[in-house]
Amino acid sequence: MTEHCIIIGASHAAAQLISSLRQEGWEGKISLIGDEPYLPYHRPPLSKAFFVGEKTEDELLIRAAGFYDKYKVDLLLGSRVTKIDRDAKKITLENGAEISYTKLALTTGARVRKIPFTGCELPGVFYMRDLNDVKQTHEFTGRGKSAVIIGGGYIGLETAASLRKIGMSVTVIEAMSRVLQRVTAPEVSAFYTRIHTEEGVDIRTEAGVDAIVGDKHVEGVRLADGNTVHADLVIIGVGVIPNIELAEAAGLTIDNGIAVDEFATTNDADIVAAGDCTNHYNPIYQRKLRLESVQNATDQAKIAAKSICGKPEAYSALPWFWSDQYDLKLQIAGLSQGFDKVIIRGDSAQGRSFAAFYFCEGRFIAVDAINRPKEFMMSKRALTAGQNVDPLKLPDESIEVKDVFN
Ligand SMILES: Cc1cc2nc3c(=O)[nH]c(=O)nc-3n(C[C@H](O)[C@H](O)[C@H](O)COP(=O)(O)OP(=O)(O)OC[C@H]3O[C@@H](n4cnc5c(N)ncnc54)[C@H](O)[C@@H]3O)c2cc1C
């Protein structure tokens, strides 16, 4: 049988996998099957430039249509894979068609976590994951209209910034005591609360949602304290869950995501997985991680392609991430979870630029750099090399960044 690699999920990881497969010498057939009707596209602009009309749909594409011709990829878009038969080495589509593979790549990503709030089915209530979600919001946006965002994480805050940019009044409802509580230090949360407040966003923390209210369409969000916040649009951003069901039903090992080894390979040697759907061991942090980032989708896909081509290489990348809000470019290197000390360089209480360096038991583990590209770059390099940093030098801005890291 001719070699045939099927990729399930027209995703960030898939786009990378295709070019890496050909670069690594894969001469067999490649099929890309995705349930969305689109070629793989960049999701980050959905809450940013695309949301405010600064990017077109075409500009979202990770690779233009010609790329898939050039790399000889059979595209099956708008088709959902419903079953993997590992013994027969074939997959089944929702229309019943079966396709045989010799290698399979799962890049099924993640989907939004849904909370069944009363009223969540009203027109004007959206989640934010897919291009279709965002296209539908446009009917409910417009200068002078009101929006409520449920969830003060990165996506919620980015969307808040975008809605302010187009002249809407915005309220963010966060259940915890501060925004970004799960992912940043209190100083960073306080900074974003200050900036959003200065930009006109009403941020309500420790606020529970009782119900989304409205008659024919959404009209507001009733909070647990009995107050109702008016809304023409509600966006819910309360996290994602990995798409593991297909893999699970096929008997692949699941452990908070599709379990893969350092070669992005599942417990079936002919099936790899990459991106948001996976859980892998990270040697830098010496623990298992399920990451939700473009960096991981892209870097892990390169490793998966090498495995498919019989050139295994262990995955050992430093996680990094970014978030754009207003004129603020937040760049994150490393993982701050578990930190016991934070050092701030710059003034987080005023202005719009500083860096927060995270330590755990004296070891430098991560940085949040806001409009501080040098701090980000130097930290990324140090974290990748396992180099520690002198916490006493970090806050001293009279010492140049490069000298802090020497
Ligand atoms: C609004 C928004 C903003 C973001 N901003 C940032 C950012 O600033 N920086 C950053 O690093 N990351 C950001 N992210 C996260 C980033 O987009 C994800 O980490 C990335 O998309 C993960 O890529 P992936 O390859 O794992 O899969 P995904 O991009 O999730 O794609 C998976 C695809 O597989 C499809 N699929 C699933 N099951 C099947 C099936 N059975 N059959 C066929 N198709 C299937 C899905 O429908 C989907 O199209 C953002 C995400 C969103 C939604």
Automatic annotation (TrEMBL):
Annotated Reductase C-terminal domain residues: 320-404
Assigned EC number: 1.18.1.3
UniProt KW keywords: Dioxygenase, FAD, Flavoprotein, Oxidoreductase
GO MF annotation: an example: ferredoxin-NAD+ reductase activity
Gene Ontology, cellular component aspect: cytoplasm
Cofactor(s) the protein requires to work: FAD
Pfam families the UniProt entry points to: Pyr_redox_2, Reductase_C
Highest taxon, organism lineage: Bacteria
Domain FAD/NAD(P)-binding, residue spans: 4-301
Protein name: 3-phenylpropionate/trans-cinnamate dioxygenase ferredoxin reductase subunit
Organism listed in the record: Zhongshania antarctica
